[in-house]
Amino acid sequence: MKNFIHLVGILIIANALHSCESNEEKKAEVVTNNYIRFIDSVTTSGTNDALTNWNTIQKCYEKKSNDLNLQIDLLEDNTIFDAKINAATSKYETFRNLIMEKKLKQEAGSF
What we know:
Layout: H1 2-44, H2 47-52, H3 54-73, H4 79-109
């Protein structure tokens, strides 16, 4: 009987630990999806909107990126999110470089 009670206790603890892991993964998935949706919305909104609102976009990106990194760091295995995150980050960096080029051209033309 004591062995049975110990076994049940171990199963309950194992289940609780597994639930914590899956909750962290779910949170990481939500944060990752929010990050990707943000980048998609920024890059599809057009360069004119981005030029006028670039400081706000950059601040929002930094916040979402920090939130994402904090959540991903809690996971033991974050490789399942790496491909999505890297693709979205690359897309944002390409768009950011395009915006920076346009800003430089605008500033050079205004002198």
